[in-house]
Design brief:
Layout lengths: L5 E5 L4 H13 L4 E6 L2 H8 L10 E5 L5 H7 L5 E4 L6 H6 L1 H21 L4 E7 L8 H15 L10 E7 L1 E2 L6 H10 L4 E4 L5 E5 L1 H14 L5 E4 L3 E3 H8 L4 E4 L11 E3 L7 E3 L3 E4 L5 H4 L10 E2 L8 H10 L7
Parallel strand pairs: 1-2, 1-4, 2-3, 4-5, 5-6, 6-10, 7-9, 8-12
Antiparallel strand pairs: 9-11, 10-15, 13-16, 14-15
Helix pairs in contact: 1-8, 3-5, 5-6, 9-11
Length: 328
């Protein structure tokens, strides 16, 4: 699907972007990959990374999703877009709400408009479990973004442009996640690991699993779907034990805007759910497939505390495969 095509990734110098581009280069033969981000330092570091060094089909494009005119230039002749750019840190979003709104909501709108004007074929926006029944501003902006991308399919008319969303949980080892934070504390010989709440649970997915899911979603998307993978959960105390069994764990309290447990599918969304072997599809409310769906889900919710859990040994095995990139 990606062979001889032009692909653009917003926020392309982040954790997902770098891994996704590496995957494209190894598994496909794209004509051009455009890495769009606003951070010139990360772009410079990425260009000297051995994975991307001297790759003639890479284009490093400095730009911000807040800038619609810049996006129109970047999206010219692009076939596929992955929208990964976002302000994601929950405490930072709580303290800087307008900045989060400008990037995550207005930026999403700009990506949609630029895609339509440039006749992009398919666009997938990356979402998060925090967008489901959100309690913090970051989650609220991603919910708004999801709604924008689903609704964008009604703007296409006869144009063959499709918009979909991929929603998953915490990505193991991604920038700002708990794994590299614990890793840093262990490396600095901290006497303890801070635990927000001993009951806290999270959905758990590796970066490569996230990449594979996005690629598969591109293959089967028609437009308007929210794709949700079936993934395990972990207890944060089990992660800490797996990483440093001898270190003391101290309860420090839940941060502002943080949930004890996350949702990937709410009870309200379950009415529009299509159940596949390894994933769910949330169809738009107006979808004909919903009306003809005989296997309706009612009061079903996909919650991190009511899920299959990884045990400590399973967490250890996953941790051994994680390679942290200091530049992401």
């Amino acid at each position: 699907m990606f062979n001889k095509k032009n692909i653009l990734i917003t926020g392309g110098t982040g954790s997902f972007g770098k891994k996704f581009i590496d995957h494209l280069l190894k598994k496909f033969n794209p004509n051009k990959i455009i890495i769009l981000s606003r951070d010139e330092l990360k772009q410079s570091e990425m260009q000297t990374d051995k994975r991307f060094l001297n790759k003639k089909n890479l284009r490093f494009f400095i730009g911000d999703v807040r800038d619609f005119d810049r996006l129109k230039i970047a999206f010219k002749n692009v076939d596929y877009v992955v929208h990964a750019a976002a302000l994601k840190q929950v405490p930072a979003a709580e303290y800087n709400p307008t900045e989060c709104i400008k990037t995550n909501i207005y930026g999403a709108e700009n990506v949609i408009r630029a895609s339509l004007e440039c006749n992009v074929k398919k666009i997938i926006a990356l979402s998060t479990d925090k967008a489901v029944n959100p309690v913090n501003l970051y989650g609220a902006t991603k919910l708004a973004s999801d709604k924008l991308f689903v609704a964008a399919n009604s703007l296409t008319g006869n144009q063959k442009t499709s918009f979909s969303v991929v929603r998953y949980g915490n990505v193991v080892g991604s920038r700002g996640s708990v794994y590299p934070y614990f890793k840093q504390l262990i490396k600095s010989n901290s006497t303890y690991l801070p635990i927000t709440n001993k009951e806290m649970t999270r959905f758990w997915i590796t970066l490569q699993e996230g990449i594979n899911f996005v690629v598969n979603s591109f293959k089967i998307m028609k437009g308007g779907e929210i794709f949700v993978p079936k993934i395990p959960s972990i207890k944060i105390v089990d992660l800490a034990t797996a990483m440093a069994p001898s270190k003391k764990q101290i309860i420090v309290g839940v941060r502002p805007g943080e949930k004890l447990h996350e949702l990937l599918i709410s009870k309200e969304e379950s009415q529009n759910l299509i159940d596949k072997k390894n994933f769910f599809i949330i169809k738009p409310f107006s979808s004909k497939e919903n009306k003809n769906n005989k296997k309706k889900f009612y009061n079903f919710e996909y919650k991190s505390s009511k899920n299959i859990f990884l045990n400590i040994n399973q967490i250890k095995k996953i941790n051994k495969k994680i390679v942290l990139d200091d530049t992401i």
